[in-house]
Amino acid sequence: MADIFVAGETLVDFVPDSGATLREVDGYTHRPGGAPANVAVGLARLGSPPAFWTRLGDDSFGEFLAETLAAEGIPETHVERVDGKTTLAVVSPPGAAGPRFGFYGSRDVTFGFDPESVPTDALTAEGTAESTERPTDPPWVHLGGVALTHPGGRAATRELLSAATAAGRPVSFDVNYRSDLVPDGAEAAVSTAVREAVAESDVVLCSDEDVAAAGLSTNDGVELARDLIEFGPHTAVVTTGDEGALAVSSNAAPWGAATVRHGGFAVEAVDATGAGDAFTAGLLSRLAGAQASEDGDEEPLREALAFGNATAALSVGSVGGMGSVPARDEVRAFLAERE
Prior knowledge:
Largest sheet: 9 strands, mixed
CATH class: Alpha Beta
Distance between the termini: 32 Å
Structural class: alpha/beta
CATH topology: UDP-N-acetylmuramoyl-L-alanine:D-glutamate ligase
Shape: globular
Radius of gyration: 19 Å
Domain Carbohydrate kinase PfkB: 1-327
CATH superfamily: Ribokinase
Organism: Halorubrum trapanicum
Number of domains: 1
Low-confidence stretches: 127-136
Strand content: 15-25%
Strand order of the largest sheet: 5-4-1-8-9-10-11-12-13
Number of helices: 11
Mean pLDDT: 88
Pfam family, one: PfkB
Enzyme class: transferase
Protein name: Fructokinase
């Protein structure tokens, strides 16, 4: 069975070669990407292959992405193929001014999820079990915030969250706010949708930039995490760049009330694209198995932060978001060596 159900976009990243600005770049290399897709593949590489609901265009880039997901062990059960062009994300050179990503292509194809197509059967134990030899638990559900920039994505996300809540399963939500994808006049609708998703989640992940852009909080660090918990989740995880990550949880969390920090690892970075997604995959691969831990034991949360930071540290050693996520044994060896 799949322990985790991931939903969200899959797209193509155009990663720049040498050049200080977009005008000076010599060329680009296309790589598979999209935050939820990176998380899904990261989980598979870390030994927890998820179910993944996503949409791919019927063009050559869509075929490229379909082949990539299949090669990474992602089941095609919930991978939809639709008419239209795949969204392309042009990555800016490190240090360049302006947004990190520029998006091109059909937003309807990649982000226009159909709320009537939400695979609710995958959110039940019966829908995910591959064998009747042992009882199964409903899967953890993870989704990202970029789909909320599209009306269809917003409606589908609401439907997915309602189904997850009705089934009583844990939900994690990555804010991942991209202001350049929000159409003119839709700022209020998107911000409201982000707030609703945070409120209906158990675990929320973000950076302080995500939350500030979405209008959720102007604080940072522990105060930001506490602000997010006020919306409803029992745990808030905040990535802090070179300083690692921190998490704050309430008494409602399986690991009890806690404030945990992990300073990350000093490594030589080649490309930070997708490092946050690698962190999320590492974190979720540990938290999803920690739901049955003894109440009040913060060690699962502390271990998950360390594992997430180690996964992210290893991912920045090569170019590209999805392809740079390490295998579980690599992360374990890295942790054993560093700690």
